[in-house]
Amino acid sequence: MPTATYVSRINQIDAAQLDEEIYKVLRNQAKEITKYQPIEKIDRWQPEIDALLRYLVWYFSLRRGNSTFGQQLLDLRYENITGTKSVLYLISTIVPAYARDKLANTDVDRNFKTAFDRIANVARLLELINLLVFLHRGTQPRLVEYLLGIANSSSTVHKPRSIGYSYMTRELLWHGLTELFTTGLPMLNFHYLKHTAKKLFAGTSNRANLRRSFPAMNRSTKCSYCGDAPILPVHAGCEHLFCYYCLKAHFVATRDFQCPECDTRLYVQDMKTYRSSFPSLPAEPETS
């Protein structure tokens, strides 16, 4: 493992992430420039455009110095990189992505494409293993750095990474809201809240006791909840029919439900599949 001054793991990961974000910004700008061109022509040359953008990023950063754009933003550099290693870094960055995109847009032999996919999966597995090793050793977060024997080092001496208080506050607030929306909101029973609010604010109706043991269905029958033709029609004690999922969704949230048409209280144990009953036809007389 190459010797290098200590660089925090988060700075190294952020530098790699910033490099990818800078490339994505340039790619989006290129799409904006060509958005009025015929899309079939742009899609045909998209792998070449992406390869050119990656080359330009490399040429104006690592080719002219010893650090990428992401490293420059975080005061990092490759202390032991040479011209040959820089070119190999470019090839390992451009060629796999170009080959993947080119194969996706062209008709090639299925066996060749399967073999390429397997090689790509092995490369992703090696990237994962290298990342796990990086978390232990603290250097070379990317596989290409390990293969070329290059490592990050600080371009300044004893200069800690400064993070503003306002930035930290925004990050804490954002992560707090994210946890609320992704964890807290799915735990709220909106069906039950809606049902409770309707019981509190809706006026009483004289039709609340209307019941019919077996509803009738014809061509004009609509689901009493969604207003469309019932899909897998069901009923639960009143004269109206519902789609299976319209009624089942309410019964999953609460064990009782008020029919929006007749205000009858429906219960989960009364939910039944609608089956039409036809009068039996008289038997045909036997012919001798």
Give the key terms.
6 strands; single chain; 288 residues; two-stranded antiparallel sheet; two-stranded antiparallel ribbon; 52% helix
Description:
- The structure is a single chain.
- By secondary structure, the protein is mostly helical.
- 52% of the residues lie in helices and 6% in strands.
- It is built from ten helices and six strands.
- The chain has helices at residues 9-33, 39-44, 46-59, 69-73, 83-105, 110-137, 143-148, 165-184, 190-201, 244-253; strands at 76-78, 152-154, 234-235, 256-258, 265-267, 272-273.
- It has a two-stranded antiparallel ribbon with strand order 1-2. The chain has a two-stranded antiparallel ribbon with strand order 3-6. A two-stranded antiparallel ribbon has the order 4-5.
- Strand 4 and strand 5 (265-267) form a beta hairpin.
- The radius of gyration is 33 Å and the shape is elongated.
- The model is unreliable at 204-212 and 278-288 (pLDDT under 50).
Helix content: 40-55%
β-sheet strand percentage: 5-15%
- What oligomeric state do these chains adopt? single chain
Overall average pLDDT: 79
Whole-Å distance between the termini?
102 Å
Strand/helix succession: HHHHEHHHEHHEHEEE
Mind telling me the C-alpha Rg? Answer: 33 Å
How many β strands by DSSP?
6
Strand order of the largest sheet: 1-2
Discrete helix count: 10
Query: What structural category characterises the helix and strand content?
Result: mainly alpha
Largest sheet: 2 strands, antiparallel
Topology:
Elements: H1 9-33, H2 39-44, H3 46-59, H4 69-73, E1 76-78, H5 83-105, H6 110-137, H7 143-148, E2 152-154, H8 165-184, H9 190-201, E3 234-235, H10 244-253, E4 256-258, E5 265-267, E6 272-273
Antiparallel strand pairs: 1-2, 3-6, 4-5
